[in-house]
Amino acid sequence: MKRNDLKRLTGTLAAASILFTLSAAASPARAADTFSKDEISGPTGYFKSDKAQFAFHWKYLKTSKGVQTVLVFGDFNKPQLQVGMPTLNNISKDRRTFTSQYKFVSTKGKLLKQVYYFPLVKLSDTTYRVHLAYHNGARVPSANGKAYTFTKTSKSPAKSYANKYAAKSLKKQYTAELEKSVQKQYQKEKAAGKNVSNPKTNKTVQKRIRNKVNSAVKKSVKQIIKGFNYNVK
């Protein structure tokens, strides 16, 4: 190949490389990585993170005044549920970030004044990045805090998360509370001169404690599942 031909070929390849780079930079994000305009009222489905032991979703309720939307947050490690009322949603220009502004709903059903928000960053068709921070002693999606990767599913994770994570936490909590109460009663009776056995070494008492704890945990797990799914009638 002649020197001039080689120079022309090199120049052509360089130009092609530049055009490819510019084209790649200007190409729009893939649909799988972006939010649809139809999702502006809140993405459908359930968002969950096994690592965070956390899940949330937008719930759409049919009322006499139309469709009402609520946000349900479930910290299954705590465990604790919190409910928010969306006030404004926004999708970024590149459609990769969905930002939700909302106000918390108190346990008495009242809408609180302070406004919170969190960004939901879409990483792929089913994965998202969410930051979690503490509010009222339990975590909720936030503008800051620890980042986790969440997966979107069509099925509620409440049942599996409540049984896998919440039940373990509740069992530990209820057992400690019941043993403390029994021990307190034992010390009181012992101080009164009664002949009573130590509940820590009494197999019958320990069995009763386990049965009561298991019953309480089972009941609480059902309530958590119902609450997260927001089965309101």
Notable characteristics:
single chain, 233 residues, alpha+beta, 2 domains, 9 strands, signal
CATH architecture of the largest domain: Beta Barrel
Q: Roughly how many Å apart are the termini?
A: 82 Å
Number of domains: 2
Find the CATH topology of the largest domain: Lipocalin
Write down the Rg: 27 Å
Q: What is the arithmetic mean of pLDDT?
A: 87
- Into which percent range does the helicity of residues fall? 25-40%
Unreliably modeled segments: 1-27
Outline? elongated
Strand content: 25-35%
Q: What does the largest sheet look like?
A: 8 strands, antiparallel, barrel
Question: Which secondary-structure class do the elements indicate?
Answer: alpha+beta
| Lateral strand order in the biggest sheet | 1-2-3-4-5-6-7-9
Q: Strand-and-helix sequence, N→C?
A: HEEEEEEEEEHH
What is the CATH level 1 assignment of the largest domain?
Mainly Beta
DSSP strand tally? 9
How many helical stretches?
Answer: 3
Signal peptide: 1-31
Keywords: Signal
Polypeptide structure, described:
With 233 residues, this protein is α+β, with helices and mostly antiparallel strands. The chain folds into 2 domains: 33-155, Lipocalin (Beta Barrel); 159-229, no CATH class. It is 36% helix and 34% strand. Strand 6 (111-122) and strand 7 (127-135) form a beta hairpin. Helix 2 runs antiparallel to helix 3 (203-229). The longest helix has 34 residues, at 158-191.
